[in-house]
Amino acid sequence: MDFIQQDRIIATSAGKEKQQEVSAAVRQNGQTLADFSSIYSKDLLPAAGGEEMTRAFLQELVNILLTYISKSSQRSSKVLDFHHPHQLREGLDGFSLELPDQPDNLEQILVDCRDTLKYGVRTGHPRFLNQLSSGLDVIGVAGEWLTSAANTNMFTYEVSPVFILMEEFLLKKMQSIVGWSEDVGDGIFCPGGTISNLYSILVARYHFYPEVKTRGMGALPRLALFTSEHSHYSVKKSAAVLGMGCENVFVVKCDERGKMIPVDLESSIVAAKEKGLVPFYVNATAGTTVYGAFDPLNAIADICHRHTMWMHVDAAWGGGLLMSDRHKMKLQGIERAWSVTWNPHKMMGVPLQCSAILIKKRGLLQGCNEMGADYLFQTDKPYDVNYDTGDKSIQCGRHQDVFKLWLMWKAKGTEGFGSQVNKCLENAEYLFDQLQRRTDYELVFENKPEHSNVCFWYIPPSLRGLQPGTDRDMRLHQVAPRIKGRMMEKGSLLIGYQPLGTKVNFFRCVFSNPATQQEDIDFLLDEITRLGEDL
Amino acid sequence: MDFIQQDRIIATSAGKEKQQEVSAAVRQNGQTLADFSSIYSKDLLPAAGGEEMTRAFLQELVNILLTYISKSSQRSSKVLDFHHPHQLREGLDGFSLELPDQPDNLEQILVDCRDTLKYGVRTGHPRFLNQLSSGLDVIGVAGEWLTSAANTNMFTYEVSPVFILMEEFLLKKMQSIVGWSEDVGDGIFCPGGTISNLYSILVARYHFYPEVKTRGMGALPRLALFTSEHSHYSVKKSAAVLGMGCENVFVVKCDERGKMIPVDLESSIVAAKEKGLVPFYVNATAGTTVYGAFDPLNAIADICHRHTMWMHVDAAWGGGLLMSDRHKMKLQGIERAWSVTWNPHKMMGVPLQCSAILIKKRGLLQGCNEMGADYLFQTDKPYDVNYDTGDKSIQCGRHQDVFKLWLMWKAKGTEGFGSQVNKCLENAEYLFDQLQRRTDYELVFENKPEHSNVCFWYIPPSLRGLQPGTDRDMRLHQVAPRIKGRMMEKGSLLIGYQPLGTKVNFFRCVFSNPATQQEDIDFLLDEITRLGEDL
C-alpha cells in the first residue's frame, strides 16, 4: 500500500538517471514524508520515468485531503478561519496568490494546497448550514476524483461512451420517479439549476415558436412568463438573457406560507392577455429557496392546461423529496409538468455540480439547439450517432457531472437517498420544535416546515419588550447581520440570513448536510444566543 | 503512509462496535487488499467512527486511479476499448448501469470504478489526438481532487474566499497577457467556451442597448452579428439562445488558409446596413477549430472601430499561444478586442473544464446580469461585498474551475506553459514535414501550420491514380470514416476527421497533449496507412 516505497518504475534510459536521483529524494526521510523540494511538475508523468514521482506526489496530496476530510467532520474544528479579502490578497504567512514566471517546486505546491484548504470554508462540517448544497459525500468525492482522472467531455459517445450511457440511465430513472411514462422524456445535465431553468424557457419558446431559432424574438409577439414572488431569480435572469425582457416576467402572489396563489396566477394571465401579451410559460416552484414552500402543482397544471401554456417545475431544491416515500406527496402533480429542474447537488448531497433539466417531449432539445457541426457530430460514424448528445446542449464542451451521481446511487440505492432526505427533514422538525419552545426566538411563519428550511428571528433581550412597528423592525433588521459577522469571525457555525418582502432580516436554516445531528441544532440556537444576547 | 494499518479512530461509543467489526474486515487480507464486501457507504464519514473506513476506501480508489494514470501514459496500452452503445447498455462482464433500490457494497463500488475506466477513453494517452482538449496534467488532477474535497460554490466570498481571489488574480493576469492596461478589465470563468462566447454577445448587446435587459429584443432594432465561415458554431448557437436569430449572423468568407477576409467583412457590414439591420458585433477567431487559423485582428479592429461595433476575439483555442514568446505575435491586435474568450482547458492542458471570458469594460457584466437576490447577495455583510462576484454570472451556483489552473501556473510558471505550447507546435511542424515527404498523404492546405492543427487526406493506393473530380471526391470522402472506424475497433489511436466547405472528409490532427512525442506522430502516419491501404 506504500507507493513511495514500491518500485513500479517504467523508466526509459533517458529518464533513468533523473528517476534514481528523485527516488533517493522521495525516500530521504524514510516512510513519513518525502522531500519534494527538488522535484518539479516537469518531473511527473508524462515525463519519462515519472511514474514513481507521480505516485508519491499524488499520494502526499491525498494524505492532505484525507486529513482535511476527517477534520471537516469533527465538531472541534472550525467551520471557517475568516480573513478579509485584502488580507488574503496581500498574502498570509507566506501564502501568496501571485502567479510566478518560474515554476515552484512540488514541496511549495503541497504547501499551497494545505493553505488553500486552511483559509477556505469547510462545507462538509456538521455546522455548515449556509447553503442548499452542503455536506461532503465520500462516494461523491470518489466519483469526482475518477471524473478528473478520466478527464473527458460529454459531447460525443466517441469520447465518453460510459458517461453518455450513465446520463441516459440517470435521466430515465429521474423521469420515471417524476412520474412520466417510458415513452416520453428527454433531458440533459447542466451547469447548475439556473441554466436548467433557462433551458426550460428556451425549449418552451421553441415549442410554441420554432421560428425564433432562425428569426429571433423580433418575429414573435410579446411573450409573458409567470412565476411566484418567492421563486428563484433565475426565471427573470433567464428572460433577460434570452432576449425576452424581465418586465415580461409577471410575479404572482404567494400565501403567507410562500406558496403561489393559483387564482392570482390565473388573473395575472388574463390581465396580460388583455394588455396584448401572449402568456406561454409558468414556472411553479417545488421547494422555494427561502421558505422551502411547494407551489400547488395540480392547480397550476389545470390553469396551464386551460390556457395552453408550458408548465415548468423548478424542483432544484425540492426534487430530492421525490426519493422519499414519506415526503414525495408534497410534489403531487409534478408528473403533469412539461419540464422539471432537479439538482441532485442540493438535497441529495451530490458534490457540486449536478443539475438536470428534464423535458417531457422528445426531440425538442435537439431541434432547439442543434447546429450540426461537422467536425464534431459526423453522421458517418461507426456507431449509433443518436448517442452523440452534445448538439442538444447550449454548450459545446460539457463537463461530466453524472458519474458521481451514478456511483452514489449504486452505493446508497434509491432507499439510501430516501433515508438521507428523511433525516434532513427530521432535523428541520426538531429545530422547529425547539424554536416553538424558546422565548428568545420567533418563527417567520408558524406552519410546520414542508421542506428542510426553517426561518426565524433571534430576539435579543433589548428588543423583547418592544411593540411591533418600524422602530423594532429597524433594530431587528440589524441583528442577523451582526450575529452573522461575529459567527464568521469566530468560525463556529455558518447559517444564512436575508430579508423577504416586508419581513426584515431573518435567519434561514437549511438541512441538506447528512453530517448534521440534533446536537448541532442545539448548538446552533445556543450559539446564536451567545453571539447576540448583548445586541 | 499506510492508512489501512493506522489507527486514527475517532469513534463515539455508539460507533465503536461497528468500527471494530469493520476494522477487522479491512485488515482481513493483510496489507495487500482490504475486504470491502461487508462495508457500505453508510459506514463511511460522517458516520460515527467512519474515519478509518473512509481512509481505506479512498485509498483503494486512489490505487485504482494511480494505476489508470500510469497505464494511460504507456504506449503499450490501448487508447480505448470500443463497445457499441447497445453492448454497454445491456451490461458487459457484470458491469451493469442499472440503478438499484438497495445499496451495493463498497467492493462492488470499486469494481464499478475499475469497469468505468476500462470501457472509457484514455484522453491522456500520448496517441489521443481527437480533441482540442487532451492530455492529463498531474498537477491539474491534484487541483481537481482538492476542488472536489473543498466542494464549494463560486457565488460569494463568504463560501469561497480563497477561490474568489484566485479567480481575480487569474483574470488580471490573463488580461495583462492579452495586453490590456491595469485600469480596465473584468471577466468570469464559465462552463466552456461556447458559454464564454455567449457572454460576449450578451454583454455587447447590453452595452449598446441596456434596455434589452428589461424590455427584450422586441424593443430593439434588428441587430446583425458577423463571424467567419471557419469560426465556431457557438456564435450562431448563442444568437439563437439569446433570441437574436441565427439568420442575423452573417458569415464572412475566409481565404484558403481559413482566415477571415477583412474586405468581405466590411462589405457584409455595409450590405446589412443597407438592408436596415444594425451591425453591432464581430467575432474574430484566434485559432479556428479545424484549420487552427488566426483571423487578421488588427484589420478587423480597424473595421469595428470605423463602424462602432463590438470586437470579440474567440481565442478559446488560440489563447494558449499568448503564453509563448515565440508564438504570441500570431494574436497581434487582440489587445484591441472588447472581449476575449480563452480556454485554458485546451492548449494549456488544464483539466476540463476551464474557460474564461474577459471583458474590457468594467461594470458591464454586473449591470447586464445582476438581479440582486437578497438571500445570497446581502449588502450588509461584514466584508467588502464587491467580492461576491456571483451576480455577474448568468448562473447562480457556479463550479469552481480556477484552482487547478492557479495550481498549474504555480507549478509550471508562465514559462512552463510557454514551453508546453512550443512543444505542441513543434509536433505540428514535424507532422507537416512528414506529410510533405510522403506520397500517400495530401495536405489540405500547403502553408506551414500557425497553430497545432494539421489537416490532411490519406490517399489509399486504389485512389492514387485517379483524376481530381466527383468520382475521386466521393471515394475519398469515405476513406477517413472507414479508417476511423477501424482505429476505434483496434483502439490504437484516436484522431478526428470532418468535411469542410467543398473539401471532402479529411483528418485533422491537433496537438495539445504534452505526452505526445515524435514517435507517436510516426506511428500515427504508419497506422493510418496500415488501416487504410486496402480501401
What does this 3D model show about the protein?
By secondary structure, chain A is an alpha/beta fold. Helix content of chain A is 40%, strand content 11%. In chain A, helix 5 runs antiparallel to helix 13 (403-437) and helix 7 (193-208) crosses helix 9. At the A-B interface, helix 2, helix 3, helix 4, helix 5 and helix 6 of A face helix 2, helix 3, helix 4, helix 5 and helix 6 of B. Chains A, B: This is Glutamate decarboxylase 1. Chains A, B: It comes from Eleginops maclovinus. Chains A, B: Belongs to the group II decarboxylase family.
Number of strands of chain A: 12
Strand order across the biggest sheet of chain A? 2-8-7-6-5-3-4
Quick check: average pLDDT of chain A?
Answer: 93
Structural class based on helices, strands and sheet pairing of chain A: alpha/beta
Question: Helix-strand pattern of chain A, N to C?
Answer: HHHHEHHEHHEHEHEHEEEHHEEHEEH
Quaternary class: homodimer
Sequence stretches where pLDDT stays below 50 over 5 or more residues of chain A = 1-15, 27-32
In CATH, the topology of the largest domain in chain A is named Aspartate Aminotransferase, domain 2
CATH architecture of the largest domain in chain A: 3-Layer(aba) Sandwich
